Amino acid sequence: MEAYAVDSVRGSRMSSDLLHTPLYEEHLALGARMVPFAGYAMPVQYGGIIEEHAAVRSSAGVFDVCHMAQIRVFGFGAREFLQGVLTNDIDRISEVGAAQYTLLCDEDGGIIDDLIVYHTGDLEYMIVANAANRSTDLEWLLERRAAVTVTDGTPATELIEIVDESDRTGLIAVQGPKALAVIAELAGEGFEPPARFHLAEALLDRIPVLLARTGYTGEDGVEIVCHASHAAAIWRALLSFPEITPCGLGARDVLRLEMGYHLYGSDMDRGVDPISAGLGWVVAMDKGHFVGRDAIERVRIRGADRRLAGLVVSDGMARPGYPVLHGGSEVGKVASGTYSPVLATGIATAYLPAELAQPGTEVEVEVRRRKVRAEVVRPPFVERTSLS
Amino acid sequence: MYPSELKYDREHEWVRVEGDEAVIGISHFAQDQLGEVVYVDLPSAGDSVAAGETFGEIESVKSVSELYSPINGEVVAVNDALSDTPETVNEDPYGEGWMIRVKMADPSQVDDMISAEEYEAFVNEEA
Hints:
The complex is a heterodimer of chains A (388) and B (127). Chain A is of the alpha+beta class and 388 residues long. Helix content of chain A is 21%, strand content 34%. Among the domains of chain A are: 24-62 and 168-258, Probable tRNA modification gtpase trme, domain 1 (Gyrase A, domain 2, 2-Layer Sandwich), CATH 3.30.1360; 305-377, Elongation Factor Tu (Ef-tu), domain 3 (Beta Barrel), CATH 2.40.30.110. Chain A is globular, with a radius of gyration of 21 Å. Chain B has 127 residues and is an alpha+beta fold. The longest helix of chain B has 11 residues, at 116-126. In chain B, the strands form 2 sheets. Chain B has a 6-stranded antiparallel β-sheet with strand order 1-2-3-9-8-5. A 3-stranded antiparallel β-sheet of chain B has the order 4-6-7. Chains A and B meet through β1 and α2 of A and α1, β4, β6 and β7 of B.
């Protein structure tokens, strides 16, 4: 038996220059299998991907997402500045506590990153970004700030602070139908959870945190923002509940793909515009000018040549990079691909010519020696969760 | 973890000799490294297998591996139950998780395989 180089699960040599999250020692103590991810040593699994996935769909799971980046943007004009660099309409989160999924695009409409922006207070926003894009995003925001003026012509650099708080900030996701009940118990009497896509201050076991009702699994739950020094105490408090299972990046990837949630670097990158990526719904064309607007508008009028399609694979697993065939010739490659325990079959995404990216189209995926039938569907692949 | 009545190879297969037939599966170490198995692709009865050549594939969510035959021969039986319950490979790798039964062309090939003790030393080095 010999493993293909699919992912360095087996025999992964951990290079010594990998960063550690504040929960690194917790993972080792739990016997996690660690892999390099975005420059960090991260747990890919503890007990097993399938059982961790099942825990999140039926009870609750906890994920270390401390590697993700937190960038605070605040000051007079912070709202106007973000409105000009992000694709979604920030006025839809004018209420303090509200949050939204959005994109950072370049002038060509290429996606620099996908983000969640939280309206944390008056004149204050917190951006949560992908770990691998942390320095790119930060530099982009600083460059844009240097290039623009706000409202009456005051340079944005004089008004707006942009601070990378990633190193001192911990982030722990608790996801699953029983997640809120556990959080309520840790928060104590009188606790009211924030509404979906909102955040609020709370005390968990007397530790001050921000609780965001967001996630990447399709289940109800929260993401706990805390000071890095408190992350381990919160992690342990969560794991003292039998309802909660520690879950790694492996389960996280299966859960997010079942919901059709995009993964930056797999489902989109700088070479792809939001329309082609199926993210037109987070681009507010009617809000006025923002970086990338003209390029995105051109794609919208002309129509995308290629679109990200969902694929349900009949027999076997379509892994990233596998060719997608139509009429015997290659029409694309698998972007994301995994096994869905809910559907008990392979699921995947791939950029296909727009005319083939229509639900119902029959294609084939070349799974090593075999050609396997696959059908184009519109994600989510899994319909019924605690959020639906 | 590594039954002493079996013979092993360095690709993590085991063989159990029964008369002139050999039952083949993968070791406890292999199933643990793979994680939960979700697909097993095996040959059909009547196919021939050859030492050092692949006879199938096994997949978990995170990885896919080729299965190598340690011996020459003809497949006489296949564990078809694994197509519906591939997780049996994790639960019982030396029992219900067997993969194929081969009529050996050259039983002396089994003598070239390593013992449980040697295999355990080998995986301890690899781990």
